[in-house]
TrEMBL record:
InterPro entries: GAF (IPR003018), GAF-like_dom_sf (IPR029016), HATPase_C_sf (IPR036890), HATPase_dom (IPR003594), His_kinase_dom (IPR005467), HisK_dim/P_sf (IPR036097), PAS-like_dom_sf (IPR035965), PAS_2 (IPR013654). Residues 530-742 form the Histidine kinase domain. One of its GO terms (molecular function) is ATP binding. Gene3D superfamilies: 1.10.287.130, 3.30.450.270, 3.30.450.40, Histidine kinase-like ATPase, C-terminal domain, PAS domain. Residues 147-305 form the Phytochrome chromophore attachment site domain. In the N-terminal section; belongs to the phytochrome family. This is histidine kinase. The keyword Lyase does not apply. Residues 743-762 are annotated as: Disordered. It comes from Xanthocytophaga flava. Pfam families: GAF (PF01590), HATPase_c (PF02518), PAS_2 (PF08446), PHY (PF00360).
Amino acid sequence: MKNYPHLQIDQSNCDKEPIHIIGTIQAHGFLMVLDTEGKTIAQVSENIHLLTGITAEQCLTMSYEELLPKEVLAEISSFGEASAAHEMVATPFPVVIQEKHYIALLHDLKDKLLLELEPTHHHSLAQLTQLNALQASTFQQLSQKNTINELSLVAAERIQQLFDYDRVMIYQFDEDWHGHVVAEKIKPGVKSYFNHHFPASDIPEQARTMLRKKGIRQIVDVAAESVPLIPYLHPRTGKPTNVSSTELRNPSEIHLEYLQNMEVGATVSIAILVKGNLWGLICGHHQSPCLIDYYQRTTANLITQYYASCILSAKEKDDKELDQTYKQVEKTLIQKMEESLNIKKSLFVKPVTLLDLSSATGAALVLNGKITTLGKCPGQAAIRKLVQWASEQTLPQVYHTQELYKVYPPAFGFKQVASGLLLLELSRHNQEYILYFKPEIKETITWAGNPDKSLQMDAEQRLHPRKSFAKWEQAIEGKSAVWSELEIERIRSLGKTVVSIQLTCQAEKLRDLNTQLEGKNAQMEDFTHIASHNLIAPLNNIQGLLGLYHHQEDFDTAQLVLDKIALVSGHMKQTLQELHQLLKVNQSKELSFELIDLPELIRREMANLSSHIEQTGAQIHPQLTVESLRYPKVYMESILHNFLSNALKYRSPERTPHIKITSWQADGNVLLEIEDNGMGIDLEKYGHKLFGLYKTFHAHADSRGIGLYLVRKQVESLGGSIHVDSQVDVGTRFTVRFPLVGQEDTSRPPESIEGMAREGSH
C-alpha cells in the first residue's frame, strides 16, 4: 500500500492499521520534517518542487535556512524558544510564497519540528468579521434550544451554511460504537442518511482515538493521488515520523475507497467531545473536491465545542430532574431499611419500592436463599439459575447488559421480560443479588448498507470497503432499552446501604446469639447449683441412710430409716420436676396463643388450692375489667398458681388472708394485679434477688425459691414485665404487664387502681 512502504494491510491487521505513521500526505499542501540542531531538512513531501521549484532530493541536501522565507525562519526561531519554555507546542501563522497564501503550522515532536503549509483563501477583514458573526449567531441560537434533537438540527444547518457542503450529518455513537444520524442538512437532490445507522467498523478504534486527540479532520480531494514523504523513514531515528497532529496526513486507503463508494469528493469530520468522551461526529460531505480552509475549520470547531457544551447542559438538566426523583426514592428506601432493619419488607412494600429507582419493569431480591420478585420477572427457577451463573463469572459489582442472551444463552427463553439485566452483587459467595429486568424492545434499524459486509477481500488479498450504502433494514430481537448512568449510580448507591444493613442485621443476630449463649451459660450455672445442692446432698444422705439400714437389727429403727429415705427421695423427685419445668420454660421456642377466660381460670386455681383456702379461711376478691386475653395457657396457669399459692403460703398468722385480683387495659397492654395482706417482703434487703432461682425470704417448710423465677421467665420471654410493691407485715402487690395481642385497647382502669396502673407500667 502506498501509505506504508514497509507494511501490508490485510484482513488480519486492518483493525490495527497504524494511521499515525502514514507515510503520505494530501496533495494540496506541503510538509517538511526539520532538524533544528543542524538546520537541515530530514524529510520532505515529494511535491515540494511545486512550492520551491526544486526537487525533494535537492531539498534534502540543503539547509532549511536556504530554502524557507525569512518570515517562516523567524517563526521557527521564536517557536523554538517558546517551546523550550513550554509555552506552546504548535502554532499556525499566515505566509505568502510566490504570491500564494498559505497557513503554516509548526508542530513540536521534541526531537524534530514538522512544518506544514496548507493553501488558504485570502480572507479580507470583512470576511473574517462575517465568520465571527456566524459563530456568534450560532452560539445564540444554540443557547435557546433545550433538547438534543433541536441542538443537533441547528448545528447541522450552521455548519452546512459555513462550508456550503452538499451534506452535513450529526452522527451519534451508541455504546457499541455504531453510528446513528440524528440530524442532517442536505442540498436538493442529495441522498439523505437521516436516521440511518452505520456500523462501528466504518470508524474503527484507531480512527476514533485520533479523533479524540485531533478534533477536526479534512480530506480535500478523495480521488487525488497521495504524496509520499521522502524518505519514508527518518534518517536519524530509522523510524517513520508520527504525523497524527498534522492537517495534511493522508487518510487510510480503505477509507478513501469507502468515501468514493459513497460518491463523496471531499469531507470534513469534527469530533463532538462531551466531558472528554467521544459522543459523536459532525460529518460534512461534498460531491466534488473542496478546500475548507483553516479559518473556516477553526470556526466550525468552535461551534462544535459550544454545541457539545449545550448537549452536556441539556443532558445534565434532564438528568438533574430524574436524579432528584431517584435520590428521593433512594432516601425513602434507605430510611425504611434503617428503621426496620428488614431489607425485604423495605424494598418491596408499596408505596415506594426498589422498582421506583429505575425504568426497569421487574426486580428481584435473592437473599438468605429466598427469592422475592416485583413486577414482570422470569420464573424463580430461571432467576436461581441466572444467579448461579453470575456467581461463577468474574463480573463487576454492578453489571448491566441490554442483550442478556448474548452472554447467557438461556435468557433467550425469557427475553420478552428480561432482555436487559442490571445485576447488583451483595454477596457472590452466598449468591445474594438484586436484579433489575427490562423487556425486549422489538424494533427495525435502518442501516446505510449491510453492516455485515463492511470489509471484503479480493482475489489478491486486498481489503475493500462495502460498495453499497443502500437502505438495509434489520429487525432487532432480544435487546432492551439502555441502562442510564443515573440508574446505575443510584442502584450502586442503594447496594452499599443494603450491604450495610445486612452487616447490621448480622451483628444484631450475633448480639442476640451472644445474649442467648450468656443466658444458657447462666442457666447451666443454675442447673449446676441445683444438682450440687439439691441432688448430690440428698443422694449422699440416702447412701448414708442405706448404710445405717443395713446395720440395724431393730425393726422399728429400720422402718424409721426407710421412712427417712422415702422423704429424701420425695424431695429429690420434686427437685427433678422443678428442673423439668425450668427446661420447658427455657427451651420453648414457639408457644400457642389462645383466648383465656380469666374468671374461669381463677375458679380452677381456687379449686386446686381449695384445701389451703379452707384451712386458712382466705378470701379471694376478683375485680376484672378485662376478663379475657390472648396468651399461652400453660404460662397463665403457672403465673396465677404461683401468685395465689405464694399469697396463701406466706400469709400473716395475725389475720385472715385477703387476696385481690384486678385486671385492666392501658397503653396497649393488659395488666394483671395480685395483692395480698400477708407477711410482706423487705425489698431494701431482698429486692435485688427477689426473682432469683432458689432464693427464699421466709422460714417456711415448703419454700423452694423457684416460683417467682419461673413467673419472671414466662412473662419476660413474651415481652412482658413484673413490678412489685411490698411492706413487711402489711402485704405484697405484684403487677404483671402483658403486651396486648389480637384485641383493642378500649377499657379504662378503675379510679381506685389508676395509681397501681402507673406503677406497673415500667
